[in-house]
Amino acid sequence: MISAPGYERLVTHIFDEGSPYLESDAVFGVKSSLIQAFETKEPGTAPDGRVLDQSWRHLIRRFGLKAASASGLSKAG
Q1: Which of 20, 25, 53, 68 is in the most buried spot, having the most CB atoms within 10 Å?
Q2: How many domains does the chain have?
Q3: Is the residue at 56 inside a domain?
Q4: What is the domain range of residue 34?
């Protein structure tokens, strides 16, 4: 879930392109636009500054949010 003041809340899901379960989606939520490649990173410093002693997965994805309606029916947060 992604939210920001003045914008509608976005609820989404990202699927790992390497997942063996993509073809067995029981609720048909897997769309090609939601399948992404997660990059494997070696042990070391993570983006948040933590030092990790195991490999980890990384994804950068940009999302756009729709401005909240003037009626106030769609509120972020």
Answers
A1: 68
A2: 1
A3: yes
A4: 1-67
Residue 26 lies in a domain: yes
Q: Which mean pLDDT values do the consecutive 10-residue runs of the chain (77 residues) have?
A: 94 89 81 90 94 93 88 51
In a domain, 12, yes or no: yes
- The CA distance from 9 to 32, in Å, is 22
State both tokens at 72. 């106030």
Give me the residues paired with residue 20 across strands.
none
Give the β-pairing of 44-45 and 51-52: antiparallel
**Which three-class secondary structure state does DSSP give residue 31?**
coil
Q: Are 66 and 73 in contact (CB under 8 A)?
A: no
Compute how many other C-beta atoms are within 10 angstroms of the C-beta atom of residue 1.
6
